Amino acid sequence: MTTEAATEASGYCRYTYRLRLSSTARTALEVEWDRVRWVWNECVAKSRAVHAHNRATGEKTTCGPVQLAAMLTEARARTAWLREGSCVPQQQVIRDFGKSRAKALKDIRASVPMRQRAGMPRYKKKREALATLEYTQRGFRLRDGRLHLAGGIVVRPVWSRRLPKPPSSVRVYRDAVGHWWASFVVPAVTEALPGTGRVIGIDWGVRETATTTNEGHDLPHAQHGRTAAQKLARYQRMMARRRPARGQAASKGYREAKRQTAKLHRKVAAQRTDTGRKWAKKVIRSHDAIAVEDFRPKFLAKTTMARKAADAAISATKKALLEMARKHGRAVYLVHPAHTTMDCAMCGARTKHALPLSERTYTCTVCGAVSPRDKNSARVMLVRAGLNPAGVDLVSPATC
Fold first, then answer.
1. What is the per-residue burial (b if ≥16 Cβ within 10 Å, else e) of 138-172?
2. pLDDT of 149-161, one tens digit each?
3. Which pLDDT tens digit goes with each residue over 44-89?
4. Theoretical Cys-Cys bridge with 272: which of 188, 284, 313, 383, CB 3.0 to 4.6 Å?
5. What pLDDT, on a 0 to 100 scale, did the predictor assign at position 33?
6. What is the pLDDT of residue 394?
7. Which of 40-49, 158-167, 367-376 comes out lowest in average pLDDT?
8. Residue 11 pLDDT exceeds 60
9. 277 pLDDT higher than 90
C-alpha cells in the first residue's frame, strides 16, 4: 500500500490500496475502461470538429462539458453497448476532459512557452493508455471489506490499514506493470503527538539528501536508482532491440520488456517513497517545529547533477515531511532558499561571493566561525524561522 502525499483539495488526503481481482472483475473493469476510453475519444473528436468548423466559418461555437454531456446522453440512448456500462465514470471522464482542455486553452491565451504549455487532449490508444475509472460517492459502496462499483463490479482491496473516515470518491486504475489499485479520497484527520519541546532545521542537498541541525536525523543519499541502473539498462536494451516499426503493433517480447522496465521503475519509486516517509516520521515524532528549506529541485534537471538529484528524490521527501506534519499537527516553516549558503548562522554576516559547490566548509570572515557548509545552512533555516518570522511562510498543518 502506498499513500499519496499530495491532496486533491485542502483538507483531503488519498489512501491507495492494491486490488485483488477475479477474472470476472478484471474483465468487467477492462470492458468499462473501453467504454470510458471511447467517450474520451469522442470528446476529442467533437472538440477538434468544432475547432475546425469555427476556423472555417468564423463562428464561436463552444464545446464545453454541457455540450459533451448532451452528446453522451444521445450516444447512450442509441448504443446498447455504451448503455450497459455505468454513467458515473463516463460523466466523470467528460469533466476531466473539460479540465484538461480548459488548462490547455488558458496556457495558449497566456502565451506560455511551448515547452511549458499543457497540450490539448489527445486520443487514448488501446495499447498505450492506462486504464483509469473515477467514481463519485453515488457510484461505489464499501461493504463487508469489498468495494462495490456501479455496474455490478465487485473487487477486494488489500486493506493494509483502515480508512480514517468514509471516502468521498475513488479512482480505480491500472499501472504500467498491470496491477490494479483503488485510490480513495477521504477527509484529512489530525492525530496529535505529545510535545517534545525541540525544534530542527533542515537543508536539502545532493551529497546528502537532508542535513539537519541534529546529526541523528541526517538523511544520507540512499542511491536506489544507482543500485538498479545495471538491470534497468539491460531491460532498456531489450526494448530497443524489439521496438516495433512505426504503425506496427508491438510484439509480445517488446511488451514484456516494457513491463519489466516499468516494474523496476515502480520498485525504485517505492523505495524512495518508503525511505522518505520513514525519515519524515522520525523527524516529526521528535520535534514540535521544523524549519525546512523551501527548495525546488526542478532546475537541477538541466545540470550535470540531474541523475543524482533525481535519485535523491528531494521533492518526494519534502512532500512526505509536509504531509506527516499535517497529519500529526506539527508546525512547519518553509524558509526561502536565497543566500542560505552564504549567511553565517552564528552572527548573520553574508559572504561577498557565492560559495562553489566544491567548497564544503563554511568559514565566516566576520566572527571566524567554521562549520560544514550544509550544517551551517541547516542552522540558518532555524535562525530565520525563529528570529525573522517575516522571512518565512508558516504552513498550517490543516492546509499543507
1. ebbeeeeeebebbbebbbbbeeeeeeeeebebbbb
2. 999 999 999 999 9
3. 999 999 999 998 988 888 888 899 999 999 999 999 999 999 999 9
4. 313
5. 97
6. 58
7. 367-376
8. yes
9. yes
Cell of 74: 444521445
User: Length of the chain, please?
Assistant: 400
